Amino acid sequence: MSTADKKADNFIEEIILEDLANGKHGGRIHTRFPPEPNGYLHLGHAKAIVINFETARKFGGKTNLRMDDTNPSTEETLYVDNIQHDIRWLGYEWEGETRYASDYFEDLYGFALRLIDKGLAYVDESSAAEIEAQKGDIGVPGTHSPYRDRSPEENRDLFSRMRAGEFPDGSKVLRAKIDMAHPNLLLRDPVLYRIKHEAHHRTGDAWCIYPLYDFAHGQSDSLEEITHSLCSLEFRHHRDLYNWLIDALEIFPSRQIEFARMNVDYFITSKRRLKMLVDDGIVTGWDDARMSTLAGLRRKGYPAEAIRNFCMDTGVTRRDSQQTLDLLEYKVREVLNRDADRYMAVLDPVKLVITNYPEGKTEWLDTENNPENEASGTRQLPFSRELYVEREDYRKEPQNRKYFRLAPDKDVRLKSAYIIHCDGHEEDAEGNVTQINCTYYPDSRSGEDTSGIKAKGTLHWVNAATAVDLEARLYEPLFTDPTPMDHEDRDFLEFINPNSLTVVTAKGEPALAEAGVGDSFQFLRKGYFTVDPDSAPGKPVVNLTVGLKSSWKG
């Protein structure tokens, strides 16, 4: 399909189609994703990644990856590496090599000198508190700095000496000279450069002055000739400064366009607060499976395809949206239901003995791998006299006639095996069931059943002699409130869910011992699980990725 035949699916694409129709930038479309390497990417970043890459892809364009690395105090190469890994895991590859704002430090310094020479920037020696006071307030004009009218020659001299390291941190800044009465407070002589005598993760000690985001961002876009700079709504008020700097510097006119952030129930998408969770030991790290980070979601078992689908299907709008956890989990199930093989594991095991099954006998039974995928084939399960079943699947006395699981004098089918008849149980002094005793119908084998017995319930099970011990990590949302950040009078940490992680020792079928890290399965009747990196050979650790249906009530 040619560009002329394409239709817009959202307001950003309408703008792009108009630009293409007008021949702007020679019909070229170039976007970028500019994360700051001061933490791991989260679900909100996924939305921005998908919008930037998919928009460029639709119109035959390109997307750059550029690290916004202008703050040496918080940025690390570790974060750079994880950001690159996460974007590739999501399914995207950027144009050329990874770019960095620090690649342009010399260019940005030159831009600052150009502003100084044009009388549009000055070195200010006011303190941070004084600068804040000078800005005034909404409807209240600001006041001029006493240093605002320095000559370009004096400003150039002072700025070059700032670069040379003559002055301590906080003693001087470079400010743009715009309008101290501007209705947008960000244009009231904003700070462009500050002094930081700190080593940078890429440039080392080469610089001791660093540009602020508002100065580095738009100019880096221009240097890369980004045609459409797509970012979230919190940067709307920054657009005026973005455009002012482009006009003042007379550089390539990149266009900033804002879209709505995506918020999801029970998740937070503030890197500062996510870092608090890590630093305070509330979670085990940035990749904890309860986190909203892409590393955490990947570890939990969310497929990249499901996250892409979620981001695309929730649309591109101009108003912030709050998406439900149920919708996100639906997208995860949609992919896993198609791709994940079915296995049997018992999370709360109790012994079941088939008293009329021959001792010492083991037979191998065929079972399907994935009924949603005909090509997935079958595998064999060992079956013998002693099994494990779920404790919740047995009741000493059923409460109603619609109970179709195990109870005295009830018949049930064991999945891919036989129909069994429950004869009773054994229990300890506290009344806990320690063993369920049953008999089986030899002519009721699955696929060869000639018994004529109708069992209304089907249970999963694991052969006791060959069972593999599994550490199963069962997750609930990390927060008890769907929007923990929306309470002005309460700290979001007050909503930490004490039951967000439960660890149990489960019993799994023997094939699970060979599962690799990242492999996902549906455990019949229990949910989807994914093998965790903490696994050791023959000792799988599995994470509950998502239940078979939503059960979270908050």
From TrEMBL:
One of its GO terms (molecular function) is ATP binding. Residues 29-337 form the Glutamyl/glutaminyl-tRNA synthetase class Ib catalytic domain. One of its GO terms (biological process) is glutaminyl-tRNA aminoacylation. It holds the Pfam family tRNA-synt_1c_C2. It is an enzyme of class 6 (ligase). Its EC number is 6.1.1.18. Residues 134-153 are annotated as: Disordered. The keyword Nucleotide-binding applies. GO terms for cellular component: cytosol. Keywords: Aminoacyl-tRNA synthetase, ATP-binding, Cytoplasm, Ligase, Nucleotide-binding, Protein biosynthesis. Residues 340-440 form the Glutamyl/glutaminyl-tRNA synthetase class Ib anti-codon binding domain. Residues 458-532 form the tRNA synthetases class I (E and Q) anti-codon binding domain. NCBIfam families: glnS, PRK14703.1. Belongs to the class-I aminoacyl-tRNA synthetase family. This is Glutamine--tRNA ligase. The lineage of its organism: Bacteria, Pseudomonadati, Bacteroidota, Saprospiria, Saprospirales.
